[in-house]
Structure prediction request, 146 residues.
Amino acid sequence: MLVVETRRVQARLAEVQTLADFVETMVRPLNRGASLKLRLMVEELMVNTICHGHSGDSDAWVEVTVRLGDDIVDVTYVDTAPAFDPFEDVEPPDAGAGVDARPVGHLGVYIITQLADRYGYERDGSCNRVMLHVQISPPAAGGPSP
Prediction:
């Protein structure tokens, strides 16, 4: 089974929920845990695109494609912000540092690296392309998804 669907929205904070809902709705029937992980990852990427890539709401577009296979979900996130590899300098946060002592930023991207089974970045022409892969197990017959 292969299901592929794409949504495109403007890079606006008001649209973050639209894309996150799209991802969750697509994945949830297969695996609730994977749907929530991917929702969080897409929210983080889009907020970063808007706040850091475009410095605020923009008419530029953001596109998410979800590919559902038998045991994997691939999400491709594409934006037109300036080139930026979010995974280039990801380091684990200092667990011993207090909240006020921690540097701002990169925590959300670090979380993505922990939630995704595989992830990647490439610059494709004038677009940033982030690929997220999450391994899933179909729900047991008659039971709730994990």
Q: What stands out?
A: Residues 32-53 form the longest helix (22 residues). Strands lie at 3-10, 61-68, 72-79, 118-124, 127-135. The domain at 3-135 is CATH 3.30.565.10 (Heat Shock Protein 90).
